[in-house]
Amino acid sequence: MAVKICGVEKKSPAAKKRIKAGDTLLKINGNEIVDVLDYRFYQGETQLEVTVLRGQKQKVFKIKKSEDSELGLTFDSYLMDAQHSCKNKCIFCFIDQLPKGMRDTLYFKDDDSRLSFLFGNYITLTNLTEHEVERIIKMHISPVNISVHTTNRELRCKMMNNRFAGDTLGIIKRFDDAGIRLNFQLVLVPGYNDGDELRRSLRDLSCYKNVECIASVPVGLTKFREGLAEIEPFNKQTAAEVISITEEIAKENKQKYGNRLVYAADEFYLKAEIPMPDFKEYGDFPQLDNGVGMWSLFQHDAAEALANIEVPSTPRKVTCVTGVAAFPLLKATVDKAASIWHNLECEVVKIENNFFGEKITVAGLITGQDIIAQLKGKPLGDYLLIPSNMLRFERDLFLDDVSVEELERQLGVTVKITEPDGYSFICSLAE
To answer: Do residues 24 and 53 touch, judged by C-beta distance below 8 A?
Structure first.
């Protein structure tokens, strides 16, 4: 498969050899270029033989460059071909629980191994071709982030509604044998893969030589589950059981491997009303995107910021919003800041998730319309502070397509966006 070149960066190695936009990239050093992984891997050499198609004629360019310089080609899309979608029908799939009428991109089910490598996305392995498996091994793409859910083959087929889902677990061993670092995710569904099944899965996955981290996260349930499998949310007791099993296996792993390896998401501790593990337990925090250790890291970074940032000289009155889950954390952080900065007045408002339903409590799934409905007409002070994870990548739209500008207009207040970490949050209060 050839890839059309849409641009060549000025003064780049490719430009100096007169490779042109409109040429079709065929090979680098004899290796066929299919997508971004091929391109990034093979263009890293210092001596390149680049084969392109110009019109009906193949041209070969010999290029020398430094190891850290880019070849300089650009393409119509970052992946250079279509994003790979998921063909599973998981009983817990969040996308199947979205209401109709949202923007099209939100309904796309991603299961792309390239995005796992490039951006840390998790893949199920069920949509990998043999060519892709061999390529990951050949290129030694690492780490690979895998949504396992369970190591029970029959149960995995049942939960993912894919009769091949159990067979693809064998790919994990092939990656492990090749020395590829592995991160695992288990979305836990009460009555399916918790309890003894969780214990089995954690032990099985802990045995891999190159495992870095295993995270258990609770199933997310919206109010839009008509026609889907009946699933009960975790409660105080069942969440506590998950934590108990996790700590049991963590203790075993420390004795066997010198590393706990397994973690439960912060949400389990909140649901069970059990204190979070100590900051030091999380090591390098490898699974923050899965909500593992965010609470402890936020507390640590906020305390560090308060100890280092100069007390603002001018008074400020601020409102900040968050989800139900993080409200106690932000409230305690703001109270501590206000005890040090006597000219700070900050109200933390927890936004109930009426859009997706009350079972969804994380800040990242709060919509603009819920913020407007719950804050309109209230005095909000000098500005409204919102975390960036409420918005899409461009930081302009909420999940319901309400824009930041619309939020400002409806509420009559300036909106400031902060990164969802403790240090940035304190800095945003001080600005």
So the answer is: yes
